[in-house]
Amino acid sequence: MTIRLDQALIEATIRLKGAGVEFARQDANLLMMDCLKADRDLLFREPERLLTDQEQSVFEELVERREKREPISHILGKREFWSREFIVNSHVLDPRPDTETLIELALTEMPDMEKPYRVLDLGTGSGCILLTLLAERPKATGVGVDISLDAMKVASANAENLNLENRTSFIEGPWFANVDGKFDLIVSNPPYIPDAVKGELQPEVREFEPHLALFGGEDGLDCYRHIISNAQSYLCGGGWLGFEVGIHQAQDVQKLMQIEGFRDISCANDLAGIARCVFGRI
Ligand code: GLN
User: Fold this and answer.
1) What is the position in ligand 1's atom list of the atom closest to the CA of 121?
2) Are residues 230 and 142 in the same domain?
3) Whether pTM exceeds 0.85
4) Count of domains for the chain
């Protein structure tokens, strides 16, 4: 049976809505664009276009995966972050708009386009934080650390895609364990979800994202404690330590930084008004 493009989109949207997908129509569009290897315009320009059998079966497969709540980024293999495209798979945390708050704050702490800033990103995952900062500051160099080799492969591929491989290196290991040298800026979006909240997460997160990248111990603060108490010897004088934090964690993280002697501690909200970043310098 042949089906029109617009009809296929309506049917897919209904199915995705029924499966609890939040932005069902938007996701149906993205899946169709991927299936037809077409841009968004086509969906509006040729709504009456008939799908071939082959296209129908590919689209059906994609919709089925999304119905099972596989993240759209995993199905498409990519996610946009700070206007650049990043490869994403099940080994890395899906880059989120919340994390762009950290980018904004970090860039204000490295204002000089000509300065060869040295940046360390702890738990780099897809590399979205490190690579965005390096892309925005053409003289900067950086190191991305991750305990997962599979994640580092994704970050390396992203570095290559963005032509940043010459200014980036990656180190496998837990936090500072294999890191040498001093940095102007250390950033991290560590796993911060309290273990007990696991049951409340959306299926996309709970069932498809790497748990290693999500959970931060009983109160979610384990990684902050470790990083804050070890960071000083890896920072240049006046160097910044900047974190993304989970909801209701900003005050605790600020306090941990104060206790360790950090100064000029500041906090920034994300677009939803949630305190999302904490920065301080030594
Ligand atoms: N640095 C990556 C990001 O912000 C991965 C963070 C993580 O795995 N917790 O998306």
Assistant:
1) 1
2) yes
3) yes
4) 2
